[in-house]
Amino acid sequence: MKSSLIIFASLFLLGAYLSGALPVIAISPAEAQSGKPESLYYKSWAIIIGIEHYILAPPIPGAISDAKKVAEAFRRLGFDEVVELYDKDASSRRLHQLLNDMLPRKVGRMDRLVIFYVGHAGFTQDSDGQDRGYLVPLDTQVNNATKSITVEHLKEFTRRSASKHTLLILDAPVFGWETTAPPGLSLEGRLAPESDTDRRAVQVISAAGKGEAVVRVEMSSRFVEALLAGLSGFADLDGNGWLMASELGAHLVRQVETASNGTQRPSSLRIDGDGDMALIEGRRSAFTLGADPQTPSEQQ
What we know:
10 helices; 13 strands; globular; alpha/beta
């Protein structure tokens, strides 16, 4: 009797489906992939920090406006999580909590993470007598490294973070990093940028060097202007449709040095790993450089 009821119910449902009486339930691509990343990264994070009205330091007119433009640029690039921290949300306590707790808990090993900062910077000497820069939170004096976010704090954070690729973009003179070899635009990398994106990388772009000022023209940072242009595609140096962090860094160094007549010299460094973050993912077919080789010598 039970089997007869099951057969009857199955036939009824099949007939209802074929007649259109029952809706078709669609499975979203995300559900179908069971949490697997659609392309190079599972999730993309952009943390935007802008401090304009300091409590214990001079204001930086236009800092928040610049930071909001950068946040919008990363939204246009398709970043999933764009977290904005301005003025009162960028206190020493909040920034340390962000680096020590929130991001290490939430950012996964197949994620990419960009941290952008515009604000004051200072420097101090470490135990070896080396100069090390630091970021100045809202409620901290410029000459007080104790409550600031030092280079050592940032390096420790990047070591703890699970993210495959991390990029720090600092609109401030921050220095004192130990570096690995800079990511070059090799033939292999140009032909297959995904080979670089498979490997871990921590990269830093800083707006100026020791003793240099970050130039602001009409309440806007020259570094941010070049950054926004680069993120819109102008930094794709080899024109293959892929924008890599190393290309963005080279673009910013060249543009800002030229615009400032050499008085402001950004730096683009890789401080860990040997990969390269992809900011814009181009088509796989764009890997080839120009036309295919025709003659035997060209093929060789």
